[in-house]
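Researcher: Checking consistency across runs. Here is CCA tRNA nucleotidyltransferase again:
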Amino acid sequence: MAKKLAEEILKKLEASGYEAYFVGGCVRDWLLNRPVHDIDICTNAHPGDVMRLFPAHVPTGLKHGTVSVKSGGMLFEVTTYRTEGKYEDYRRPSEVSFVSELRLDLMRRDFTMNAMAMDLRGKLEDPFAGLDDLKQGWIRAVGVPAERFREDALRILRAARFAAQLQFQIEPDTLRAMEETASLLIHIAIERVREELHKIIDSPAPAVGVALLCQTAALKSWPLLDRLFSAGIPHAPRLPRLAELTQKWSLLLYGSGFGAEEARQVCQVLKLSKREKETICAFVECLTELRPHWDQPREIDWRSLLLQRGWAFCQKLDGILQACWHNSAAASDVTRSLRETYEQMQVKSIQELAISGRELSVLLDKKPGQWIQHILQHLWQQTAFHRLPNTPEALLEEARKEVVRYEH
Ligand code: ATP
Ligand code: MG
């Protein structure tokens, strides 16, 4: 569907006398029969020509020659063939120049498998033998590897990431160059580093990526991350069993012997959001308390965890425990016990209490404030496992007592 819409753009460019190709990641992924998530187009038309030909456009990156063109409600990046000038900060070229030859555009790309273009009729332009590398599962830098990593050190992490996503090997000269230039990663913004690390731990073969990070010492500029990933190697194969990134980071942290405080520091180094940081620290805190031994399930006090952290959190924590205990038949007993404990709850959440915050405020004749959340939480803890009936009368009486305790 998306491909059909993108083809309309190529057709129009060709009909107007320009060259136009699909390029980069989409060509690689089509050839590998993998799902394609963004389709990029390159052309010898200049951005001004592209904008004129396609009135429905957004000038997303004119400086770099990119115009986003609308086709059937979707946006596709159309970029003019370009080369990149000198790299000044190990990341961004100081200038880009438009060129008329496709080959020159493909030359600036990172790996041979990413330096292929395909036209409307499926004809491949492959000046660096990317297809051969793709067939053999090699990741190979275009040109002289060390020079390419010196231009843009992020490519070192991209190589490790593609190896993990595609389960490819890194060609020996390229690998050596990664080791040689690893210290230059210090110049890369941590947000970009984080995105690549996310993709590695979220890939089907994170162990491959993590091993490469260690082998090349790619993370030596961040000692905490370096230690995390080195110690995390044995646990990396467990990561694909988890659904969410916060669970993955938590398992890696716990597996590497990091406690909640060190987990917090890692989240800070990676500039994760406050929400992600809190979730990860809470998982690591629970895991540190529970100390699950690998492949050796143990009983969990779900009742107190459900009261402290709630159902959604406990389900995800159980997911992490299951990933720790893979291969063990007894592990499913732990999941069953969580479900049974949850079913025993008379009141499953604060929303199910027979009295609301607003009612409490009226009945106790007190202005709304922070106290309401405290009282509701207390009432829920009391009623959840039947200590107190969930009736307005019982709740109001308990609330009166708790308000006195809260205020003193
Ligand atoms: P994915 O989209 O799956 O992350 P991709 O290869 O498509 O992988 P993008 O970041 O979408 O990666 O980039 C599209 C193309 O641009 C790449 O295939 C490559 O040709 C080129 N490219 C991207 N980043 C770099 C880089 N740092 N150095 C050189 N070329 C790059
Ligand atoms: Mg892409």
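Researcher: Does this match what you'd expect to see?
Model: One thing to look at in this run: The chain has a mean pLDDT of 94.
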